Amino acid sequence: MKRQLLALLFAFGFLAVNAQSFQFHDQSGNNLSGQTVTLTGDDSEYELTDYIKLMNNSGTSKNIKIKRYEVSVTPATTNYFCWTVCYAPMTAGAYPQFPYVGHLAWNDYVTASGSAYAPYQLIVYHKPNGNAGNSLYRYVAFDGANPNDSVEVFVAVNISAANSVNELFAVKSLNLFPNPANQVANIQYQFNNAAGEQQLVVSDMIGNRRKVMQLIGTEGTVRLDLNEYASGIYFVTVMRNGEAVSTKRLVVTH
Predict the structure, then answer these.
(1) What integer is the mean pLDDT of 169-181?
(2) What tens digit of pLDDT does each residue of 213-248 get?
(3) Residues 17, 113: one domain?
């Protein structure tokens, strides 16, 4: 999966959004506000993911909410995002704006101290489900007490057709059990074929890698000792040749 930044060279028929207290940043601290993050892959990929940081530039603490707009989406794909919680995958077109006023998720927010990054990152997901095509999402972060105090970033997902229409997904299965887990979590994986490099990466909610393990062969089970992990939500990601191909949530409870 390749990742690049493009200047936003076209306008949409939305209400203008002015960055005031906030800025979206990439992992290197570059300002993404008003720009487009582009993710590329082919229709054989399980999932495309990106982590985006949010800076509160004001001098006071803010309760920050995020909403996602589907500008244009490929039919039969699914998408979701995480902002303090991870929402269930949504079929393209089911919720053009999420969350909407009246939905329980509308009340969700992350508190960011003044002149600091929010403690959680915006994590965006797109699942091609075997469908090639281009999709564009618009994410808006805003002050829960003042919705006009906001900032936006666009995420473009460009999915091409795989070389073979019969090509199967690289990951046949990825299972975590028990989940939620207390002392130990078993991670069972199965691939359709072996890759040159296969890794299992465990990350926390703010994107820090907590553990990286090599995966051997086309199937197996990894035992993860949870004594070093605080209670909370973690992400277990399978990497093949440097690309994330599958991610599952792991809930740790002590």
Answers:
(1) 84
(2) 999 888 999 999 999 999 988 889 888 877 777 778
(3) yes
Q: Among the three residues 140, 160, 180, which one is the final residue of a domain in this structure?
A: 160
CATH code for position 234: 2.60.40.1930
Are 130 and 224 members of one domain? Answer: no
User: Which is nearest to 174 in space by CA: 219, 129, 226?
Assistant: 219
Q: What is the residue range of 123's domain?
A: 2-160
What is the per-residue pLDDT across 180-189, written as a single tens digit (0 to 9) for each? 999 999 999 9
Q: Which of the listed residues 112, 141, 160 is the one where a domain comes to its end?
A: 160
Total domain count for the chain? Answer: 2
Q: List the CATH number of the domain containing 43.
A: 2.60.40.3880
* pTM tops 0.85: no
**Rounded mean pLDDT of 137-164?**
89
pLDDT at 15: 38
Mean pLDDT of all residues belonging to the chain? 86
Q: Is 91 exposed, middle or buried (0-12, 13-18, 19+ CB in 10 A)?
A: middle
Given strand 184-191, what is the order of strands in its sheet? 171-177, 184-191, 219-225
Q: Is residue 165 part of a domain?
A: no
